[in-house]
Each structure stands twice: as C-alpha cells, then as structure tokens.
Amino acid sequence: MEKYLGMFVLSSLISRFSLRSRFIALITTLVFATTMLLGWVASRESAQQMEANIGNAAAESAYQMVDKLDRSMDSRVKDVKLLLGIQALTNNAATSVLREQLELLQNNHNVVSWIGFTDTTGTVQAATGGILEGQSIAARPVFLEGRQSLWVGDVHEAVLLAQLLPNPGGEALKFVDIATPVHDSQGEFLGVLAVHLSWEWAEYIQQSMFPPAQQRQDTELLLLSADGTVLLGPEVLIGQSLNNLKHIAGPTRTSPQWAIETWPDGERYVTGYAWSSGFEDFPGLGWIAVSRKPVTTAFAPVEELQTAIMAIGIVLALLSAIIGWLTASRMAAPLTRLARAADQMHDGEHNNFIPLESGSPELKRLSTSMRDMVSRLLEQRSTINRLEDLANTDPLTGLPNRAFLNQYLQLAIPEAQRNHQSMVVIYIDLDCFKQINDELGHHAGDLLLIEITQRLKNALRSGDVVARLGGDEFVMVLKTKPEHLEMLSHEISRRLLSSISQPILLPENEQARVGCSLGAAWWPQHGHDINAVFQLADDALYAAKAKGKNQLVIHSPSLPTTKQR
Q1: Catalytic choice (472, 529, 538, 539)
Q2: Which of 129, 211, 253, 321 is the most exposed place for a label (fewest CB within 10 A)?
Q3: Distance CA 484, CA 475 (A)
Q4: Where are any strands of DSSP class E within 11-97?
Q5: What is the DSSP secondary-structure string of 172-183?
C-alpha cells in the first residue's frame, strides 16, 4: 500500500511541471552529460598524446646515444687508418723511434690506452710505454683478425694488459680493439697495427646525454651488446643479460621505438630502444642503446593533466547546466527560429534569412547583430579567399609560390608516410634566361616565363606540384613508391629537358630558346628533414650547372655541399 502511495505522490509532483519545464530539465541534463563526456574524451586523448610524446622522447634519447657512439667509433677507426701513414711502420725503423711516434699519437688521443705494432708472427715489435714488447699476441683476436683486414672488436676486459696499464680507480679495465694489417709499398705483409681504446669514453658520452635536471628525474641510459648483455649503465646491471625484455629478444630493428617494459627488478619503465647500424667506416657491433624512466615518474604529468581536465570539465558542466536552466525557458523559441535560419544559411539561402525578433529589446538587438555579423562574415570570407589566393600564388605565372609549397609539404609528408611513399624534389633553373631578359627586355622575359610555366604543368602527373621560387627558379615535388624514384626522376627530367629546349615565339616574331639545369634529391632516402632534402637538391642543381648545364644531377654523397661552395 505504501509503495503505491509513493508512486502516486511522485506522479502528482511530476504532473505539476509543464511539458516545457520537463523539456528544459532534459536539455540541462544533456548539457551536463555532454560536457562531462567531452571532458573525459579530451582527458583521454590528451593523456595518450602525452604518453606518446614521452615515449618518443625516450626513444630519441636512446638514438642520440647510439648515434654518438657510432660516430665516435668511426672517428677512432679513421684515426687508426691515419696511423698507417707513419713511415716508421714500413721502413724498418728502430724500435725506439717507432715507439716514440706511437706514444706521440697516443698523447693526442686520451681515449687510446695502448698502441702496438707486431711482426708477421704476432710478436710485439714496438708499443706505447714499451708494454708487451717482445711478447707474442699471435693467439689473440686482435692479431688473428687484424692480419686479414681492418677489424673492430667488441667491449672486453683486459687480459694481457690488466696488470701492465695504470689503473688508479682499481676497476676492471675494459677495451674496444681496432686492428689493421700493415703492408709495404709492394703489398708485402709486415705485421699488424693494434689499438686498445679505453671504454671510459663511452661513459663520458653517457654522462653528457642528460643535464643534471633530467638526471634527477630518474632517467637512465644503458648500452647493451648484441646479445643483450649490459655494457654500460647502473652498476647493479653491468654484465647482466636483459634478453627477457620483449623488444630486446625480438628481431633487430633499424628505427628507434619505445614500450612500457617490466624490468628484472619488477618495476615498470618507459623504455626507449635504438639499434646501432654503424657509421661510415665503422661497421657497427650490434650495440643497443636503452633509455628508461619509471612509469610513475614519467607519466606523472599525464595524471596531473587528466585530473585538471576532469576538474575543469565538472566546473564547466555545472555552469552550463545552471545557465541552461535559467535561460532556456525564455530563449528557446526565438533561438529555435534563429537556429532554423542558420540552417537555411547552411543550405545556401543567404538573402535576409535571419528573422528580426521583436519579443524583447535584447532579442531584437541579437537578431539585428546576427544579420550584420553574417553579412560581414560573408564579405570577409570572400575577401579572405581572395587574399589566400594572392598569398599562395605567383602573380606572373599563376603557379604556387614558396608559402603554398610549405603548407603543401606539411600535409604531403604525413600522407606519404602513411602510404609508404617517397618524394622526388627537383630544382629547375633556366639556362640563358638572363641573356634573353637583357637583350629582349623584361616584358619578353615575363612572356617566356609564362610559356615555360605551361610546359612545366604539361610535364606534371596528377597530384604532383610545381612552384615558382623566384626569378627563373622552379621546384617540383613528385610522390612515388621508393622503387620508382630513380626511374621517375629520369623520366620527368627527360620530359623537362626536351620540352623547355623547344623554341618560344615572342612578340614581333622574335624567337627565344632556353635550356634548363636540374638537381634532384629524394625524401626520405637522402634525408628525413625535408628542408635538408631541398638543400641537397639545390646542391645537385649547382653541380649540374658546374658540369655544363642542360642536364640532371641526382644527389650523391660525393657532390659538394653548400658549405663547400
């Protein structure tokens, strides 16, 4: 009985409210729920983006470390190659003379712990500090491998040198070995030049990666050998194998990546990985650089952001609900009419579509203001469209200009990455244009540029872009699959060289003929930074002109760079 009585009382209370009041209550509830939902979605999306940024930063740190190590090792390998130029190695100089030259070189490289020269049997003939002179290292990898070709050995503890080299700290000495065969002018094998590099230089690189502020935030860098053994990092992990980490045990990759990993201490870390691939003369030893940071520390800003967004969302939702409740009943009908008029505007009915509301002075002013605002917006839209066309177009040729090209690349590069495409950048410079400009006048030069523009457009495929950079300089950007880069570069260049070289008819039956020089570079094969690729294409253009013009030059490492001009 009490149950039915309660339902009757509730029904009576609801029936006292008009349909309009119940509608307002529903709208207020929807506004509150929508605001809360949007706040949650914004919080979630922002958190995911921040986590990705934090993870990518960890991967970038690992990459920077392994890149520095590879470049440093490359410098050491080049130093060893320079040592082969010592005449004392090949002219049977006295041991003291050879030792003196080796020690002089050692003094100029603080990372070199020992340099020695063996004879053909592996006996040390001369060495820095006289260490190991007269002893045989024929059974050591530094001789066995070094007598064949240039060899770089991975990190190892000292065996013969452990008791002979100074060691103030008392820690176990570790080295990276470099060895190379020595031949005389007739190609006769004379012995092996061996260099032991102190592993301390890797620790210097590790310490230089982070400023003190980041070190206090629990960020750590490790270096692993190819089999996952820790070579450099926290003392407790040195010598341990980290193959239990999923990304270490997986197939070797070339691009940096990150993941959240559970480490042997049971803690979860944001972990960035980068794999060594060598650099120039250094072939690489399969090193793996790892950057790690505890999840609780790394993602603390994410949690703070989520809390702040949700708190702001709650406040905004409450404010929206209160304001909606207070104003909906009075504004519902006029605003509905205005909304309907706005829908008509959206459908293209632009003439006097905003009704003039006279129910109150405020609504009258609002409707009048909306009329004026829409009129101004339409005028501004038309003006903005015209200004955008002027800002992004070359006024003479009608081609896109540099500003448009920059905007295009911001959209084209992500699209090319998604579609696994590459891009060809071709710089085009007209040959003999200045001569025509000087002899026939600027008006003739302008007409020539307009005709050349049409020929450039005819050489384009659908979806490609050609822009005028200024004067008689143009640039083309072509998308294609990586395997078609070279074929497309030559095909487009062939069309351009043939088309542009055709005679051009000018006023008063004057004829002019120009050629063009082309320089090309490929993204991302020649560089991941598109601005750098543009500069490489410009350098290739410079090389094409230097070789006699009217030809294509594609970037290669042997070409001179801008700094060399």
Answers
A1: 472
A2: 211
A3: 19
A4: none
A5: PPEEEEEEEEEE
- Compute the Cα dihedral for 47, 48, 52, 53 and give only its sign: negative
Round to whole Å and give the CA distance between 385 and 371.
21
Q: Are 555 and 537 in contact (CB under 8 A)?
A: yes
Helix, strand, coil percentages for the chain (3-state, nearest 5): 50, 20, 30
Per the annotation, the verdict on 431 as an active-site residue is no
DSSP SS3 for 268? strand
Write out the two tokens for 396.
């003479």
Cβ atoms of residues 178 and 112 within 8 Å: no
pLDDT exceeding 90 applies to what percent of the chain? Answer: 12
Q: Say what the pTM is.
A: 0.45
What is the token pair recorded at 488? Answer: 């497309």
- Under DSSP, the state recorded for 236 is G
- CB neighbours of residue 147 within 10 Å: 19
**48-99 pLDDT tens trace:** 777 778 778 777 887 887 787 778 777 777 777 776 666 556 667 677 777 8
The owner of tokens 């003929």 is: 513
Closest CA to 548 of 505, 516, 526: 516
